[in-house]
Every structure is written in structure tokens, then in C-alpha cells.
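User:
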Amino acid sequence: MYLMNADGTNKRQVTGDPSNETSEYGASYSPDGKTIAYSRSSDVYTMNPDGTNQINRTSHISDHVVFSIWSPNSKKIMFHNGLSTGTPNKMYIMNVDGSNLQIFDNGKLMNNPIAWIR
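Assistant: Predicted structure:
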């Protein structure tokens, strides 16, 4: 994963090892701007905006984490898995530190857009 200025300058790699084919995607800044959440393989990670303090917040909870959405107060992350193994999608909510993991939806809402409401 790379970060850069809005004009494209100061491009720098902040995650990943070029020799490793693990993909990282779905990055989003927390509303307070202090943390970035992103998906790597089947887990949700967080890191500081400069790429330091990369922490796995889940432990292979699903076959493929598709995206993550921050709560407006930057205290929770919602995410869901994909259908790569034919298992039903699940929507999860957890605290930013990975604690209090809960299944929010068992696949009934997956074809609809989701958003936090303040």
C-alpha cells in the first residue's frame, strides 16, 4: 500500500513486502484521521498514517474480508467477508482493538449498501 500527497508527490510504500504476494486493499482513514484500517488476506489490520504500528485486529475470521467501515466516533469497525468458499456472507462489528467482535448480519443485507448513522 502506498500513501502520497493529493497532487501525487511524496509517494511512499507503507505496507507490504514486494517479495510477498499478499494483497492489501480497502484502506480507509478513521474519521479522526489517526488510524488507517485495511484488509490483508482474511484479516482486518490497523496502522498509523505513516505505516507504523501495523496490527492484525482479527484472526482469520472469514475467508476473505471485503471492506471495512469506521464508525463516526472512530471507536468501531464494521466489515464483511466475501463468498470465495461458498459460505454465506457475514457482517461483523468490533472495537478498533479487535475486542467485542459480533456478527451483525448473517447475509440478509449483503446486497444493500451500508453506512453508519450518527
